[in-house]
Amino acid sequence: MKQTVTLDRVTKFMGLGFLMTIKSLFTGDLDKEGFRNFLRKVVVPIASIFLFIGLWHMGAKSLYNIEADYKIEKALTEQGQEAADVMKACIASGDISCQPNTLPSPAQVWESYRSLLRDHQIIKADKDAFAEKTATLNAKRIAEGKDPITYTGRPSFVDQILTSLKTVFAGFLLALVIAVPIGVIIGLSKTLRSSVNWLIQIFKPVSPVVWLLLVFMIVKTLTKDSNSDSAFIISFISVGLCSMWATLVNTAMGVASVDKDYINVAKVLKLGPVQKVFKVILPSSLPLIFTGLRITLSVAWMVLIAIELLAQSPGLGSFVWEEFQNGAVDSNSKIIVAMFVIGGIGFLLDRIMLTIQNAISFNKTSGI
Amino acid sequence: MISNTIHNDLVIENGIAFHEDVMLDLKHLKKVYPTPKGDYVVLEDLNLQIMKEEFVTIIGHSGCGKTTMLSMIAGLNEISGGNISVLGRHIKGPGPDRGVIFQAPSLMPWMTSLQNVMLGVNQVFPHATKSQRNDIAKYYLQKVGLEDAFHKKASDLSQGMQQGVGIARAFAIKPKVLLLDEPFGMLDSLTRGELQDILIEIWNKEKITAVMITHDVDEAIFLADRVVMMTSGPKAKIGDILNIDFERPRTRKSVLEHDDYYKYRKHLIDFLEH
């Protein structure tokens, strides 16, 4: 029983309370109210997923038909009846050379997903083989003080996900390091707050693209002589700059709105400024700071894709763009796979932040 | 500190003459809030002397400026005119020589009850060893009956227990004056009674000069040596002062059964109703 209670708390804590309903279905302790809950929280969402896939399938099918009819029509008008018949047969046979290029069906997307995973296995094996082959040579090169030979082959889909995650975390950390201290400082002083307010209000709505260009101008010059990975630097700095505003504003607000009672206690006890900040102000504004950080992380993930796409730095964004440019038969379905992966990872990141936020915050009201 | 006795127990320090037994001295105290329609005078020419080891309760209608006066003594509210001195020295801002028990418990909810008390103790006894400071904090938490809740988060405690920690925190910094702003106003009557007993028990031992605001006539009589009645604002001042001559230590029972109790009670209620 105890275990159930803790599990219940953990899942609620992470905002995944519906898992408990599924569990109670198997353990059998499901009363009338529980059954209604089960319907609402499990059956209906699953049904909606199937409905979504069904609608998508039908939509994709009709788009496919429109595209196919158009192709046949075109062949008929441009090259005559014979060419149209060939085209019709070709489309019906499922030959790659003449497939209509449109929204892929769920089945195609699933197939692409599996092929991307297979591709990853192949590249991974290739990489391992390469590492094995160059191991002794690299050891020798390092001993001689030269750079080791690195694998320069094509990155797999999974590699690109990892690169994106690396970039988003670097950007997130940058935002944290910049926005929290500045937020605390401007939160503490009313004068400072009103004097930098216009700056924040102006920079906050600036589009990621513009940030990217600005960072590009600066980083390009700064990294001229070094051989560092400037695409990565540009993209993570841009991500950080785009996403830090929510944290900055929330931190400043949290610090500025600390309960007056706590401030009075600090005054009566004559706490020094350092103690006042670390023992009273920061802990009491942590919930708001974390709300800001949570928004920052989700914004970071969202702008990352656009920035990677523009900065030509490897990652999910450039994967999507390359596939779009590529125009291969399964390109469209790969883009859709990437879309789901991006959404899924974004959801997971948000859940992680929510969990940390709930663990840290002292008032036990959970976020949404 | 140069101080020379002139006559009996009248002392001159920094040019200010004061009676040695006076702990807290409010002289011609004035509080004005500027409003768009002109100044709003909350307190005017308020004079009050509170002796060492005295427990004074202040009673008056809501909005008469009781809390304003207390927070001015605490140094949390600026003085518009006149002055407040503690042991003959004018106060400048807040300080741990005047401990405050607020109306809301005002504990840091992310700290345990021990940490909350330690926050003040660390500040006031920086030269004591860590274990000495810990002992002080634990001693006062025990006094308020929270020996089982040292390591409980303040947010997990009941309102009454939280106010208990507030009392422990205030006594643990060994203030010269204890200021209590309706500390039990938000509690149910049973808890209120318990905390009154706890407060008076610690106070009997420490004899810290105390000024307490209350709305509760019975509370005012039970705890106080003197009950100060304030007139209604604006321009509130001291209306009347009632000496309570019950012997200490008192018990609730002995106070309620005392012949003078209803006389005192009638006096206060008559004042409040006029």
From TrEMBL, chain A:
Question: What broad class describes the main subcellular location of this protein?
Answer: membrane
Q: Where are the transmembrane segments?
A: 42-59, 167-186, 198-219, 231-256, 277-307, 335-354
Out of the domains of life, which is the source?
Answer: Bacteria
Stretches assigned to coiled coil:
none
- List where in the cell it is found: Cell membrane
The UniProt entry's GO CC annotations, sorted and at most eight, read: plasma membrane
Q: How does it sit in the membrane?
A: Multi-pass membrane protein
Keyword Transport attributed: yes
Q: What is the lineage of its organism?
A: Bacteria, Pseudomonadati, Bacteroidota, Flavobacteriia, Flavobacteriales
Q: For the ABC transmembrane type-1 domain, which residue ranges apply?
A: 161-353
Supply the Pfam families for this chain: BPD_transp_1
Which organism was this protein described from?
A: Aestuariibaculum suncheonense
Q: Which family does it belong to?
A: Belongs to the binding-protein-dependent transport system permease family.
UniProt keyword terms in alphabetical order: Cell membrane, Membrane, Transmembrane, Transmembrane helix, Transport
Task: Note the Gene3D superfamilies from the entry.
Answer: MetI-like
Specify the protein name.
ABC transporter permease
State the Gene Ontology BP annotations.
Answer: transmembrane transport
Automatic annotation (TrEMBL), chain B:
For this protein, the record's SUPFAM superfamilies field holds:
P-loop containing nucleoside triphosphate hydrolases
Gene Ontology cellular component annotations, sorted alphabetically: plasma membrane
Q: Where in the cell is it found?
A: Cell membrane
Query: In which broad location class does this protein mainly occur, judging by the first location in its UniProt entry?
Result: membrane
Q: Would the keyword Hydrolase be found if you checked this record's keyword annotation?
A: no
Its protein name is ABC transporter ATP-binding protein
Keyword list (alphabetical) reads: ATP-binding, Cell membrane, Membrane, Nucleotide-binding, Transport
- One Pfam family name from the record? ABC_tran
What are this entry's molecular-function GO terms? Answer: ATP binding; ATP hydrolysis activity; nitrate transmembrane transporter activity
Q: Report how it sits in the membrane.
A: Peripheral membrane protein
Q: Which residues form the ABC transporter domain?
A: 24-257
Q: Please verify whether the record's keywords include Transport.
A: yes
Q: By its UniProt entry, which InterPro entries does this protein fall under?
A: AAA+_ATPase, ABC_transporter-like_ATP-bd, ABC_transporter_ATP-bind, NO3_transporter_ATP-bd-like, P-loop_NTPase
The family database entries (PANTHER family) matched by this protein are listed as:
NITRATE ABC TRANSPORTER ATP-BINDING PROTEIN, TAURINE IMPORT ATP-BINDING PROTEIN-RELATED
Query: Which top-level group of life is the source organism from?
Result: Bacteria
